[in-house]
Amino acid sequence: MNRFLIASHGNLAKEIVNTVHMIMGTDKNLEYIGVNPETTIDEVKEKLNNFLESGEDGDQFCILTDVFGGSITNICTELITRHDDVHILTGVNLPMVLEVINAPPSLSCTEVIDLCITRGKESFIYVNKILYGKENRK
């Protein structure tokens, strides 16, 4: 089974999960970690280890983070060196997470990530261009 975690600075991860629950219901396999200035590296590592320990043999773990090179992503990246079943994708946004939640369970974690990258890129839309057929009205 694919297991999903959103990790971010501040409350972003928590609020994305809350929004997903509002749209899709609360029975979704989705967890979060948020870091703030008071959060220690050891606290983050403990939460990440708890996430990994919550899985079963054969599970794949997909962590969606906010910023490549950010502290939370860097801490998560340490897991890749110790666990073959951990995958990290940065640049999390709501369309990507909705894609994760709706992905067929038959897809592997890497296939879900590929789908997320495609959908994430497609989610950037300049509405003015669609509305007016060009970049602005002037």
Description:
The structure is a single chain. By secondary structure, the protein is of the alpha/beta class. It has one domain (2-132): Phosphotransferase system, mannose-type IIA component (Rossmann fold). Helices cover 49% and strands 18% of the residues. The chain is built from six helices and four strands. It has helices at 12-24, 41-53, 71-82, 94-102, 109-122, 127-132, and strands at residues 2-9, 30-35, 60-65, 86-90. Strands 2-1-3-4 form a four-stranded parallel β-sheet, sandwiched between helices. Helix 1 (12-24) links the parallel strand 1 and strand 2 (30-35). Helix 1 crosses helix 4 (94-102) and helix 4 packs antiparallel against helix 5 (109-122). The protein is globular. The termini are far apart. The model has no long low-confidence stretch (mean pLDDT 89).
Amount of helix? 40-55%
Please give the largest β-sheet: 4 strands, parallel
Strand content: 15-25%
Number of helices: 6
Structural class by secondary-structure content: alpha/beta
Distance between the termini: 52 Å
Number of strands: 4
Number of discrete domains: 1
Query: Can you tell me the overall shape?
Result: globular
Q: What is the fourth-level CATH superfamily?
A: Phosphotransferase system, mannose-type IIA component
In N-to-C order, the SSE pattern is EHEHEHEHHH
Radius of gyration: 16 Å
* The CATH C-level class name: Alpha Beta
Write the layout of secondary structure elements.
Blueprint: E1 2-9, H1 12-24, E2 30-35, H2 41-53, E3 60-65, H3 71-82, E4 86-90, H4 94-102, H5 109-122, H6 127-132
